[in-house]
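Q: I'm writing a short methods note and want an example of a predicted protein-small molecule complex. Could you take the sequence and the SMILES for NAP and return the bound structure as tokens? Please keep the output block clean; save any remarks for afterwards.
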Amino acid sequence: MNNTRLLLKSRPDGRLGPEHFDLRDEQLGSLTDGKARVRVLYVSLDPAMRGWVSASTDSYLPPVPLGDTMRSLGVGVVEESKSDAYQVGDWVTGMTGWTKFLDVAPGDLSVVPQLASIEDYVGILGLPGATAWHGLVVEGQAKAGETLCVTGAAGSVGSLVGQIGKALGLRVIGIAGTQEKCDWLVDELGFDAALNYRTDDLSKGLKEFAPNGINLHFENVGGEPFNAALKNMAPFGRMIFCGFISVYNGEAKDTPPEMTAIVRKRLTLKGYVMTDHFDTFPAIFQELGKLMMAGKLRYRLDVTEGLENAPSVFNKLFDGTNKGKLAIKVSDL
Ligand SMILES: NC(=O)c1ccc[n+]([C@@H]2O[C@H](COP(=O)([O-])OP(=O)(O)OC[C@H]3O[C@@H](n4cnc5c(N)ncnc54)[C@H](OP(=O)(O)O)[C@@H]3O)[C@@H](O)[C@H]2O)c1
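A: Understood, no commentary inside the block.
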């Protein structure tokens, strides 16, 4: 049986591209006792992967070593098993990496119930859904009647944050990068308002929407949208930090905004990463499942076929040209 993997060849200085990877074709040996062989169906492309290929060891995960399979989340199906933990036909999720096949030991990947579509496990019932729910509900302690602002609002995490916020009874404003995305947020996802960070005066727009201030802010981007939100926080507001995509490629400076507002407004600021909370995913997915069944969550995937295309497609996340959760289809179910 043949396998194909993408190995990290060198570290980018700026954007990640095909030149940083080697495509390796290889013959797979027979499966070892105690392991299962998984065929990968989709791999996820996430902004954080840009950080994982940098040399910095000052983060929540160590850098991907040069010469290793690129680290990524993914979903797959068990093709062969010599382990009691996996049955042939099981659907599995977790860190598959950029590979067509992988052999796994018990605990390496999670077996998931076949109650939703496999695509749901890439998006709503994958990292984006868990990140949105955990950030908003667990870290943010969202409460009905509050005013919520979310940046990166039309993205895979942000669009779910806003919709979960609406389902929980909050007033929601989103900040995104095109008018088409802003219209989608309001007209199709039910956000109360949206601002375009490229054309709108964000501080003025936020003040008009929330004259008494933002109670809960969900940050995905950093830079000017973050500054505008900070200026418009309500006293005792909470700011939840999920990501700072504008600085991941070194294209924008990670400069602090006007920090005195934190004291003047007595704000709480909190960052989190979901790799600390994998154990909570099943409980979160039960809650998200209820909202899905009630028709309260809409979601779209932006899928390209072919593992070899992963490095060139990755930068759609940073151009803003992805329309929904960015993923690569590796094989058919
Ligand atoms: N803490 C965690 O555990 C965790 C887990 C998952 C994701 N995240 C973070 O969540 C954020 C969103 O991730 P995602 O997977 O949902 O991606 P996404 O939002 O689906 O895609 C990224 C979007 O970010 C926007 N963007 C890119 N560069 C930008 C810039 N310089 N300024 C403003 N906006 C920019 C673009 O939309 P526009 O057209 O609107 O610019 C782009 O479509 C990222 O910061 C990511 O690191 C954190």
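A: Remarks, as requested: The domain at 2-123+300-329 is CATH 3.90.180.10 (Quinone Oxidoreductase; Chain A, domain 1). The pocket of NAP is lined by residues 46-48, 127-128, 131, 152, 154-158, 176-178, 181, 220-221, 223, 242-246, 252, 272-274, 317-318, 320, 322 (CB under 6 Å).
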